[in-house]
Design a protein that fits this description.
Length: about 120
């Protein structure tokens, strides 16, 4: 009888640990892969006209970082039926191309792309 209780207890623990493992994995996946729509007030942002809407950067002037000449580009991702889009800004035609990306959960129209330049650029 005691042996049977130990087997039931061990099986219950294994099942609970398995459920916790897969449930935790799903939760982490969901949190890292969920991307919401961009903020409505940043939908018009582009390299030639950025609007900064964060309260902590209310005095930030993006004008020095605006670029008048850019090209809208897109290219396929490794995942089928998914196209990545962005802006190509040529600085030196002989220099290598640098690809910058936004953080997880953001979009290319997010003003944080410029805000990071605030501390890096004079």
């Amino acid at each position: 009888m005691k042996r049977r209780l130990w087997i039931i207890a061990a099986a219950t623990i294994i099942i609970l640990l398995t459920l916790a493992y897969f449930g935790g994995g799903y939760y982490v996946y969901y949190r890292l892969s969920k991307i919401g729509p961009p903020a409505v007030d940043t939908l018009a942002n582009n390299p030639s006209s950025f609007k900064v809407t964060y309260n902590e950067y209310a005095t930030f002037d993006p004008a020095p970082y605006e670029v008048s000449s850019y090209e809208v580009i897109s290219f396929p991702s490794r995942q089928s039926n998914v196209a990545l889009s962005g802006w190509y800004i040529e600085v030196d035609p002989n220099a290598p191309v640098v690809i910058m990306t936004h953080g997880n959960g953001a979009s290319k129209k997010d003003a944080s792309v410029l805000i990071s330049c605030r501390h890096a650029c004079p």
